Amino acid sequence: MTALFYTGSVRPASSAHWQKWRDGLFGTRLNIFITLATAGFLLWTIPPLFRWILLDATWTGSAKDCAASTGACWAFIGAKIRFILFALYPPELDWRPALTIGLIALLLVITGTPRFWSRHLVLLWIGTVVTVWILMAGTLIGPSVPTGRWGGLALTLLISVVGFACAFPIAVLLALARRSKMAGLRTVSIIFIEVVRGVPMIAILYVAMLLVPMMLPGLSPDAFVRAQIGLTLFVSAYLAEVVRAGLQSVADGQAEAAASLGFGYWTTLRLIILPQALRSVIPALVNLAIGILLNSTLIAVIGIFDLLNAAKNAANDPVWLGFYDESYVFVGVIYFALCYSASRYSLWLERHLRAAK
Amino acid sequence: MRAEQNQSHGWRTKIAAGLVAAATLFTGIAHAGPTLDKIKQRGTIKVGVGTSPGFFAPDGSGKWQGFFVEFGRALAITVFNDPDKVEFTSSSPQQRLPALQSGEFDILLSGVTVTITRAFKLGFHFGPTIFYDGQGLLVNKSLGVTKGSDLDGATIGVQSGTTGELNIADFFRKSGHKFTPVTIEDSNEFLKALESGRVDALTQDASDLALRRTLLKNPDDYILLPERLSKEPLAPAIAAGDDRWLEIVNWTVNATIQAEEFGITKDNIDTFLTSEDPAIKRFLGTDPSLGEAIGLDPKFAYNIVKTLGNYGEIFERTIGKGSPVGFERGYNQPWTQGGLLYSPPFR
Amino acid sequence: MVSGEMSVSGITSKPLPIPGSPKPGIGYFIREWWGSYPITQLAVLIGLIGIFWLMGSNMVHTMHRLGIQPGFAFLSQSANFAIGESLIAYSPSDTFGRAAFVGLLNTGAIAVSGCILATLLGVSLGIARLSGNMLLSGLVRWYIEIIRNTPLLLQLFFWSAVTHALPPPRQAFNPLGILYLSNRGVSIPAFRLHELSLVTLAILVVCIAALFAFYKVRSKRSVRHGIIEFSAMGLLAVLGFGLAFRLSGASVALELPLLRGFNIAGGFNLTPEFAALLIGLVVNSSATIAEIIRSGIQSVPSGQWESARSLGLQPGRIMRLVILPQALRVIVPLMTSSYLDLTKNSSLAVAIGFPDLVSVLNTTANQSGQALEALAIIVVSYLAINLSVSTIMNKYNKRIEQRGFLPR
């Protein structure tokens, strides 16, 4: 029991590194037992998995070759990767979703680099969001593609990034309203935030899909746009709470000092309060961004071909029937890579910011 | 802060003005125009389809193909004289009816069964039946089941939001037997449930089951029971309250059926242009008086058959003997050949 | 927008009543509560209500056009569809209302069992994550990373595939001859009570009440022999109840699951859909809970460990008496939100075929056309569940803040 809880209080010097390992693994009878049990579990699970993924896998060929082997069929991914990444998008225009993915990746990398943090970032986000939307829709630049044919990784990234970007201003207003002394605005904000946070995202998507068109006959935007609006409103309620926590962390003196310098309300907010407030909640913002990406898979339930749904449908092709495992593993790795790097980034950033202080 | 307070009076006026504008806009759009105007303004027809190969499925390049899809194209020809001015969106059975109600689709070509409840209580209008089907049961041969009543106590997979969900409950209520339903929305999961043995049988429109059977890993281990639990006439469905749009749908479908009855095909249609038969002249629009009277392109039937072929050709190309699906025509033949397809006269 | 007095971390100019001036009236308090820009606020509020009213009236108009009668009258009509599993008796001839209730109970069953199991698994994982055994903590770390960085829907598909990959009922795993594990779910022996009378139930209630009262009284005095005394009393109570049970003529029969016809009948059956959803939600939440537990325990300054150790306390008791009570202050509020997340996530049942509230109401909306009403029921039910869970957890949190989690 002694060594069961490593609390950080016992920081061994690096010379005692091996000592720590030996104690941890074999120090007590309990630890020996735990080590053996864990090792046994790993030996039981890893080798068959390894065989399936690598040794017995089929890397090239047709569905027949795959059926003959017991391992994974990566040839299937090779044949279907276009569909998984771009889904129903017209194949002759593949460069558009590809460029969309590239632009969004670039946007995220720039946003993640502290050196580029400035007010220009806001313009960059607005610019990128508008650009990728036009790029996907094809307005002005060539044959237009209806949103019904957008899909795959491009759609997943697009809907997440646009959702996050559009939710931001709404969330800031909601957070300010919730902290304001004006009861009317405060009540509206509280009701909105608590209702949206209280119901499952699927319910909000169903409202967007099924009720909105009946409420706005003839005026209602298409299904994808409605899903996008639903996701945006959903995110804005959660984001509002993060922003509110950030606002709370800014010392009152900051605003008072700004007021004494003659700054107006919005100027104070823009130049003094928000930058500090947001900086203090960066880890929460990254977490929320991960949550949005993972939750965006729910739009599959309302029939939109996002990355996960595209992967599922790829395995529904009569020629390549039933390679669900490979399909799911493949997109699982994509989601994992995106989210894991985001969460590692968040940890790095926290350390970096603390060091900068 | 004083300065800002003064500005705020401007804000109040603006908000008030905005509200008035919004109010007029909302009351204005509450009575939206009929479907055809909406479609013409938009430039495409929005069609809700399902996902099963042969009936409706995107091909490798993402273009929708299938039996029902062709009727969507036929509609686009009637309205725009362009088979591509149509936008297909897949919709699960659970969502398709609310989506149509809500105006998300102009028409459902996803194999909706005509029922009186749907017509009166759910606000749908149906075009002519384009596929006559019946609900079947797909079972594993090893169970030794030959008819529905052998399935007492079995677990049966049903797809949610279909008439199948209601029919199977009726079937077992009638016989006094018991069953456990496993209700699955997603079509892939639905099939996997049978393959893994999670359910003893699947119930669904027989044509759909026949298709799904071919998608199983070992199709020969499964059998589609000959018994039919229900009548399933599958027809195009539109939202109630737009007679003109309904008639356009009706006569688009009728045109394909009538063409087959006349023996007019994609290839030989031009030879009929010189026909002296007044019925054929009216049908093909060589006598334009009929088309002008109804406000459509007089040659819409010609255009449809010229581009897509008649009903029989569409059937054979997508789900018939020559296709991978390989269905018999069955009841889906012109009445002149003992089937149920019967187009009212083009007169 | 509009404010001079909207508070951004303290841009406030709260007009305090001047001391010595006449006592402020009720109007003052209303004005003070409503805040600045009263007219603009009112305009925004009226505008929002107006927009909702217009959308509502459009909705009703559309429904009338389609021939659907708005309102909840449909709930008393016959549903005509079957539901795979239900905690109460249900047949297709029952009403839509009862069907919705079946869905609500199913959601409740998933949520309650999910929260309990996720807590057990999450706490164990959280402690294992802090273990000095690097192999174990490393393994748990990767478990947490993988679970937290992939979509829940994907995980549910995985668990659904796993439960479906079990053998069919005729080749079911049948360890010990009493437990069946097949793709129809898990069947375990169940106790069926026969001739259970009100008297027996009353005796049971009395026994439990007596035991509880005894516990309350004893625990106030000493703790030293508390456990032994309490166990003795417990045994006595069980014996007493057993005797009363026999005397009142009730009997209990063990019902074993058996392969009958197509399915395994008898006993208690857990369907694969329920199992897949439960496992998926439990695994998913356990990763979050493990992280909460870890951060909670690590939030307690290490000085606490050292001073407790210098007092000669055993590690287990340090954990129980010193660390956990402090850690719980961090843990409980976070746990509340992960319980709520689990409950809301149970709505993904619709993707793997478990008839939860959302799934049943979805079918209801589809078969009856009453989409607005069905969605209203979903929203209201979830808000009610949320409200009750947060109320219970807030109460618990208050208790912890006041006196730690163990009764002293």
Report what the structure shows.
- The complex is a heterotrimer of chains A (357), B (347) and C (408).
- Chain A has 357 residues and is an all-alpha fold.
- Chain A has helices at residues 17-26, 29-55, 63-68, 74-86, 95-112, 120-137, 152-179, 183-198, 201-215, 223-249, 252-260, 265-280, 282-295, 307-314, 324-356.
- Chain A has a single domain (74-356), classed as MetI-like (MetI-like fold, Orthogonal Bundle).
- Chain B is α/β, with parallel strands linked by helices.
- Helices cover 43% and strands 18% of the residues of chain B.
- Chain B has helices at residues 2-29, 35-42, 67-80, 93-101, 116-120, 163-175, 187-195, 206-215, 243-262, 269-272, 278-284, 289-294, 300-308, 311-318; strands at residues 45-49, 57-58, 64-65, 86-90, 107-113, 124-126, 131-140, 154-159, 179-184, 201-205, 222-224, 231-239.
- In chain B, β2 (57-58) and β3 (64-65) form a beta hairpin.
- In chain B, α3 (67-80) crosses α9, α3 (67-80) packs antiparallel against α13 (300-308) and α9 (243-262) packs across α13.
- The longest helix of chain B has 28 residues, at 2-29.
- Chain C is built from 13 helices and 7 strands.
- The radius of gyration of chain C is 28 Å and the shape is globular.
- Chains A and C meet through α1, α2, α7, α8 and α9 of A and α2, α4, α5, α9 and α10 of C.
Helices and strands in order:
The complex is a heterotrimer of chains A (357), B (347) and C (408).
Chain A: H1 17-26, H2 29-55, H3 63-68, H4 74-86, H5 95-112, H6 120-137, H7 152-179, H8 183-198, H9 201-215, H10 223-249, H11 252-260, H12 265-280, H13 282-295, H14 307-314, H15 324-356
Helix pairs in contact in A: 1-2, 4-7, 4-14, 4-15, 5-6, 5-7, 6-7, 7-8, 7-10, 7-14, 8-10, 9-10, 10-12, 10-13, 11-12, 13-15, 14-15
Chain B: H1 2-29, H2 35-42, E1 45-49, E2 57-58, E3 64-65, H3 67-80, E4 86-90, H4 93-101, E5 107-113, H5 116-120, E6 124-126, E7 131-140, E8 154-159, H6 163-175, E9 179-184, H7 187-195, E10 201-205, H8 206-215, E11 222-224, E12 231-239, H9 243-262, H10 269-272, H11 278-284, H12 289-294, H13 300-308, H14 311-318
Chain C: H1 26-34, H2 38-66, H3 96-129, H4 134-148, H5 152-164, E1 180-182, E2 185-188, E3 190-194, H6 198-220, H7 226-247, E4 251-255, E5 258-260, E6 263-265, E7 268-270, H8 272-298, H9 302-310, H10 315-345, H11 349-352, H12 357-368, H13 371-403
Antiparallel strand pairs in C: 1-2, 2-7, 3-4, 5-6
